[in-house]
Amino acid sequence: MSGVSTATGPRRLVPVRWKADGTVSALPALGGDDGGEATAVSNLGVAVGESTKGGLDPRAVQWSSNGDATDLGVPAGGGNACVPGSVAVSGTTVGECGVNDPEDATLFHAVRWN
Fold first, then answer.
1. How far is CA 17 from CA 14, 23, 63, 69, in A?
2. pTM score
3. Is-contact 74 97, C-beta < 8 A?
4. Above 50 in pLDDT, residue 1?
């Protein structure tokens, strides 16, 4: 995972990408969000992770190799609080989503975005 801590609020991270020359650049959050973190990157430079507002309510995001952000949405059978964990060269992304169980908010299940 990658992110830069900021001084505003608890655990507000800004997603970043390291370039081959060692420089670090911030990746944009999705519209209406103010942070997030990158969790994986493919061999083609496509990154995935989460976009959040105030560190809450993560939305799955994919950043193209040039840094453009795309909302991945909630996959079929999803739930809430979806976070990608890996992206293949083909673009297939896997991760986890909350189960929406009012009895236990800590339950997650595996999901796949194509």
1. 10, 8, 10, 13
2. 0.82
3. yes
4. no
